[in-house]
Amino acid sequence: MIDLYRTMARIRAFELAAEVASQGGVGVLGAKVDERAKVRGPLHLSIGQEAVAAGVCAHLRREDLLTSTHRGHGHTLAKGGNVRRMMAELFGRADGSNGGKGGSMHIADFSVGMLGANGVVTAGLPIACGAAHALKLQGKPNVVACFFGDGAINRGPFLEALNWAAVYRLPVLFVCEDNRYSATTSTAGLTAGPGVAARANALGVPSETVDGNDVEAVSAMAERLVAKVRGGEGPQLLHALTWRVRGHVSVDTQAYRDPQDLQGALDADPLKRARARALASGVSAAQLDAIDAEVQAEIDDAVAFADASPPPDVAAAYTDIQTTGAGAWL
Amino acid sequence: MAVTRMTYAEAAVLAVANAMRDDPRVVVMGEDVGRGGIFQQYKGLQARFGAERVIDTPISEATIVGAGVGMALVGMRPVVEMRVVDFALCGMDEIVNQAAKNRYMFGGQGRVPLVMRMPIGLWANSAAQHSQSLEAWFAHLPGVVVMCPATPQDNYSMLTQALRGEDPVIYMENKELWGLQGEVDDTRVHEPGRAQVLRQGDDLSIVSWSAAVHTATQAAEALAAQGVNASVIDLGTLWPWDRDTVLRDAARTRRLLVVHDAVQPGGFGAEVAATAVQATGCRIARLGAPRIPVGYASRLEAVARISPAAVIEAALSLMADAPAAAAV
C-alpha cells in the first residue's frame, strides 16, 4: 500500500509541476503564448487517474512492456521512467527522454519497456499486439500492458486488436482507463450497447471491471489478470472506471462539464482515499507526509534539471529520421 | 553465384526465403500468405518455415501494420503484406503516424525495421479501388524508404536490401508484373537510391519506375527506329532517389521526360522534373495518368493507362520544342 501511495503521489506531483510550468504555454484562439511558459503545446494531465497506472504497473517487471495513450505521464512514471528526463522532455530540452522530439504527448522510456505515449487514440493497441507477438515468438516470459481510454473503444483498431490478441493468444493485458470522456464529450452518449467489458467478452477476451480510484482494488485485480496473461491464458481486459479531474488538455476549462460530475471526480480522489485507508490500517500521518515530501523533492529536482538542460541543437531536427535517404533534401 | 530464370513473384519468394533462412527474426504477416499470397509471392514459405513465422492474419490492415511496428520495436524484422496499395489505406495511421515517425518522435530510443509490401499499378479490369499507384504519397513521408521494382532481378535485389534495413520500407511491387520472367542473379546487390540506366541516348532522358519502365523501354525502341535516341533510366528507389544519375543525364541530353502510371498532377514525376530543371535548366515534360479514377470497362481503363504511343508522342513534342542548349 505504501508503495502504491508513493507511486500515485509521484504522479500527482509530476502532473501538478507540469501544469504550473505550462501556464500560458498554449496559444488558444489567437492568444499569444507566454514566453515564460516552460512547457508548450498540448498537455494532457492524468490528475485523478493515478490509481490505474499505479495499480497495474505494480505488477509489471522491468522487462515487461507498456503502450500508452496521449495521457501517458502516469503510466511512464509507474513503469519506472526516469523522472528527470521525462520532465526535460516536457520542457523540450536536449536531455529529455526523447531528446526534445516528442514532448508530453510522446513521452516514453524504452529503457524500462515503456514504448511510448501516442497522439492517436487507439493506436497503441495494434502496437501492443505486435510487441506481445514478438515476446511470444521469442519465448520470453514477459507481458505487455496496453493502456487506452474509453474513447478508444469506438475506433476500428480496438476490435482488430482484441480479436488479434485473442486469435493468437497473446500476452497482453488490455487496460481500459475509463475516465468517461472522449476528449470533451461524454462517452456514454457515444457508445452503443453495454460498453467495453461486454465488447471484449464478445471478442473472446475475458474482462473484469474495477473501481479505478481504489488503488488496492486495481492492484489486486491487476495482479490476478497479469498472472493469467503471464501464465499463457491469453489476453485479458481490465476495465478501470475512473475520473478525469482536469480538462482533456491543459487549456480545456471543462465548461461542458456538470458541476456535480466534477465534484464526484474530486470526491473520489484516489490519493485521498488511499491516504484514509492507510491511516485506518495503522500507517502514521507522519509517514505519509514524509512520502509526500520525498516525491515533491524528487519532482522539484526534476524541474531544476529540466530547466538547466539546453534546448536541442538545431541539427537534431535532421537526425533519427532514417538511415537511408536521410538529410536535408530541399 | 546462381543465375536463374524466374518470375517477378518467384524472385520475391526467393528474397524472403533467403532472409528467413539466414535470420530467425524475419517473419511474414498478412492475409492469405499461408497459401502463398494472392499473387503467389509467398509461395511455399509457410510449408518451409511454419505458421508461426508465416502468419495468416485476420483482415485487419491497421493491426497488420501496427503489430508490425510493435514486433519490430521488440527485436523482430517483420514483412507485412497489404495485398494492394489500395488496402494499405486501411492502415494509413499505422504507416504514417506510427511506423514512419517512431524513430524520430521517441528520439531514437526504438527502431522499426519493417517492410510493408503494397503493390501499385493498374490491375486489369479491377476498377477504381484496385488500380491505384500511390507511391508519391509515401515519397512525401519522412521516415520511410520507398522502393518500386520493375524486373524480377530488381524484385530480388531490392527486397533483399529492404529486408536488411533498420527503418521502415514501403515496398511497392506491381500488380501486373507478377508473371514477368527474367534472369535473376542471386548475388546481385541493389544499392538503395541508385538508379539504373537501361539505355543511353543523346536526344532525351526518360525517367521512370515500376511497370512504366517497360512502357518507356518499348517507346524508346520505337523512337530509335525513328532516329530519336532516348536514355531510359529506372529510378527503382523513389526515396531516396538517384538525383546524380538523373541530373547527369538530363544535363547531357537537355531534355527530360518523366513517365509514371500514377496520376500526373502531384505525382512524383513533378519532383523529379522540378529538381532537374532547377539544377540543369533542361526542358522537361511529365507523362502520367489523367486525374480520374480507373474505370472498370477496358475502354475506360485504357484512358488511365500510359501506352508506349503516349510516351512516343510526349518524347517527340519535347524534341520539337527543344530550346537551344544552355551551359550547365
From TrEMBL, chain A:
Record GO terms (molecular function): pyruvate dehydrogenase (acetyl-transferring) activity
Cofactor: thiamine diphosphate
Entries under SUPFAM superfamilies matching the protein: Thiamin diphosphate-binding fold (THDP-binding)
Xref: InterPro entries: DH_E1, PDH_E1_Alpha_Subunit, THDP-binding
Domain of life: Bacteria
Span of domain Dehydrogenase E1 component: 36-313
Single GO BP term: pyruvate decarboxylation to acetyl-CoA
Keywords: Oxidoreductase, Thiamine pyrophosphate
Gene3D superfamilies named among the record's database cross-references: 3.40.50.970
Protein name, entry field: Thiamine pyrophosphate-dependent dehydrogenase E1 component subunit alpha
Automatic annotation (TrEMBL), chain B:
Cofactor: thiamine diphosphate
Domain Transketolase-like pyrimidine-binding positions: 6-180
Keywords: Oxidoreductase, Thiamine pyrophosphate
MF terms in GO: oxidoreductase activity
InterPro entries from the UniProt entry: THDP-binding (IPR029061), Transketo_C/PFOR_II (IPR009014), Transketolase-like_Pyr-bd (IPR005475), Transketolase_C (IPR033248)
UniProt keyword Oxidoreductase, yes or no: yes
SUPFAM superfamilies noted in UniProt: Thiamin diphosphate-binding fold (THDP-binding) (SSF52518), TK C-terminal domain-like (SSF52922)
Short name of one Pfam family: Transketolase_C
Name the record gives this protein: Alpha-ketoacid dehydrogenase subunit beta
